Amino acid sequence: MVVSMRRRGLTAALAITMGAGLAVLGTAAPAAAAPHYERAEVHQLGYTDSADPKTAFDAGGQVNLPIGARTAEDGTVHRSRVYATFDLDRFHGKRILGGTVAIRERDVADCSKRAIELWHTKAVNKTPSWHQAPDPLSKLDEILTNEYCPANITFDVSAAVQQAVAQDKPRVTFEIRVPEQYESDVSYGRKLYWYTAVSLNVQYNTVPELRDQHMYNGGRPCVEAQPYPHLGYFGNSLQALGVDGDEYDTRHLTYDFAVWPQDDAAARTEFAGRAGPAGYVGGGTVPDGVLVDGRTYAWQYRVGDGADTTAWSRTCYFVYDRTAPSAPVITSSNYPNADSGEMTPLGEPGEFTFSGGGNTDVAGFEYSWNMLGVPGCSYGGGDVGQLECPDPLEGSQIVRADVLGGSATVLLSPQRSAYNTLRVRAIDLAGNRSAEVTYEIFAPWQGAPVVSVVGAKPQWNEQVTLRFSPGEGISGTTEYEYRVDFGEPRTVTAAADGTATIQFLAGNEYGHNVTVRSHSANGWISHEVRWDLTFYPWPEVTSDVYDVWEPRGGPGVPGTFTFTRPAGPEWVGLKGYEYSFDGGESIFVAAGADGSASITWTPPASGYYNLEVYALRADGTRGDYSGYHSFIVA
User: Fold this and answer.
1) Residue 190 in contact with residue 109, Cβ under 8 Å?
2) DSSP annotation of 522
3) Same structural domain for residues 461 and 570?
4) Tens digit of pLDDT for each residue in 399-450?
5) For residues 283 and 254, is the Cβ–Cβ distance under 8 A?
6) Distance (Å, rounded) from C-alpha 333 to C-alpha 351?
């Protein structure tokens, strides 16, 4: 029978577990919450022998380690002590909660007698000899009882491990021996089982830490000094970062948050939050009813890992504001309201003034010719997964009031001809929006730039040159803003006459589109106009005589018909074309180097005719689509 016995301080042993067979102590446990248990790495293990006082005996092979006295075959009495040294590097920076040395008895001389002491000695690098034993520092534990034999025994070495780690010692050495008064008595002698040897199991925890440079509330960074941020919808959302040197604990930290009115620290509310993934903020939501609109609040956080909890963090402040401001008033000095029946002046930007009417809750205005957007925050968008909310008074279509409750003036141009509706909302410092107000105008249709092709009709896979010219009644054009195929906006500077040209490769077999608007020196921007280029998956047919849908030529008047290849890479190097008039016999004509071909045909009589043409690939196969050219012979 094998019995496990644990020693703490200098108290009597207690029976812990009983069972048949071998009980291996100190095996690594699966990851768990703090505190943690880990076996220290053995640096040195061996024993000394008084009968051979100059020799050190390192543990090795299947040799049990002797302690106390034993008699050799020649009658010589040998006294031995076991020394075990353990590396502590992995525990530096940890808080040591406890330590136990475990042994297992074998080859006990007399089970009715047991006296074993465990001493803390000066650390050694290698097994000492009897004459060079390290100086003892303190006796840590002992067992003097003889219940259960042989037994698994543990000794409390917490004080020695804590001291060594606190002093940043790389190693700790223990001496296991029979007390001096019994050390020569062979009846107290025994051996320690080689398989389990001597192990040191350390209970420890890495104290968690705050990373309070990462404190956020309402999606905004912590502010410690005035002016404090005004926070609205997300004002009750607190986030902060904690870390722990123990990997498992980092993923399972607990977060506590505290919030209180700045002028009433006694009204402090503490509540539990939730942890985020390792390296990401944890968060907490202030309980309902705690925050009162218009008051200034302070808040902190702390984290724990199940064994240790940090101190409270620095203090952040915010003003809680969930009240929407009053709606603004819109006026314009030069753009009449559409209800007046008047148009806006052509080529002149509109001057619009938004007024907060003296309501000091109004800090700015949001405006758009289209639908006003819904202000939003980015969930988990920050570098540590924090909520990120933009400054409510910054943005491309937001303007600040000159003073709280004051006004702001902007220059705007209509986006389209006819009716345009300007939509405006007031914004307060917390980002709360007022109800929407509108101002409708009627803009003239003139003014959009003119787009024309420079040179011949564009062909697939060739450069296209477009000219932009000022719209009717527009002067002072400085540049054009355009996009090709809905790509990123680009600008081109206008020449002295107000025109500009652009070039692009017509590489899309389905065609292209270009949108453009003009900018004038006075700040006016035209509405947008679109130009389209379409390519078809069949050959194009043109004629010098019979090219329009009205009677032309006449019987006996020859006409030239030109076939142009379809767009797309499969038609580069095509063989030629097959054509027929009014469903007659198909005739082949080879393509030239540029992929086109021409035929001359003379109509036999007046009337309606239809020419159908197929392109032939390089391998002679027909295209899937035919081109048609219908015409009337006079």
Assistant:
1) yes
2) T
3) no
4) 999 999 999 999 999 999 999 999 999 999 999 999 999 999 999 999 999 9
5) no
6) 6
